[in-house]
Amino acid sequence: MKQEIMTIVSQKQLAPRIFQMTLTGKLVDEMEKPGQFIHIKVPRADLLLRRPISINQINKEAQTCTIIYRTEGDGTKAFSELKAGDLLDVMGPLGNGFDVDCLKTGQKAYVIGGGIGIPPMYELSKQLKQKGIEVVHFLGFASKEVAYFQEEFMALGDTRFATDDGSFGVEGNVGNLLLSAIEKERPDAVYACGANGMLKMIAHVFSDNPNVFLSLEQRMACGMGACYACVCHVPGDESGTSSVKVCDEGPIFRASEVVL
């Protein structure tokens, strides 16, 4: 993990409250694993805590990385007002990243994302594809209006959509898509990022598969494991005192390693 002042190359709005920002800097040389995140200082003196945002794409040749984020408060709103040429104080890459080495060429992976949990799944899918893994995407959005990156995922493999209101793809959540899919096949590995309810469902549906990797979303402060603001409890701990830190021991865990 390093810290650097990175330069914004571009920024554009993909959907209501959803923005895509590309940054350049030597920090990109440190970025390897899909699922890692960067910790960005808000360019405002009154906002002290950094904002953790997952890496959507890594481009070593161009020395750029791309993030996709949703404006939730003053910090991310401040990010959305920046433009090409502006500078950002960035720490990273942080987190352990998804395990892509558990699969061999020709095997199949389910890549599942919900809402703002979708961005890191794109770099993951790219790297799985490069290893010769067959990827099937299951993406869930609230509605067609807030859907994004559909064509990018479709270019990498079979992509299935669900929306809460049925305005795009199957009506309902991605669970409906998964239950239909597993009637015909079982994947060799499952990767997911999204709301806690979705992750719980996935852990239950694929409880017999040891290669189920979940990216947890937690509020973070330091991002380096020092403040214990993002702990998650572990199974089999009757005292309720054992936990793992999502920022530096995660954010990716096997489903069997955490209590959701």
What does this structure look like?
- A hairpin with a 2-residue loop joins strand 1 and strand 2 (18-24).
- The chain has 260 residues and is of the alpha/beta class.
- A seven-stranded mixed beta sheet has the order 10-9-8-7-11-12-15, with helices on both faces.
- The chain is built from five helices and 15 strands.
Write the layout of secondary structure elements.
Elements: E1 2-15, E2 18-24, E3 37-40, E4 51-59, E5 64-70, H1 74-80, E6 87-94, E7 108-114, H2 119-130, E8 134-141, H3 150-154, E9 158-163, E10 170-171, H4 174-181, E11 189-193, H5 196-205, E12 212-215, E13 231-233, E14 243-245, E15 252-254
Parallel strand pairs: 7-8, 7-11, 8-9, 9-10, 11-12
Antiparallel strand pairs: 1-2, 1-6, 2-5, 3-4, 3-6, 4-5, 12-15, 13-14
Enumerate the strands of the largest sheet in spatial order, edge to edge or round the barrel.
Answer: 10-9-8-7-11-12-15
Structural class comes to alpha/beta
Mean pLDDT equals 94
Q: State the shape.
A: globular
* Radius of gyration from CA coordinates: 18 Å
- Portion of residues in helices? 10-25%
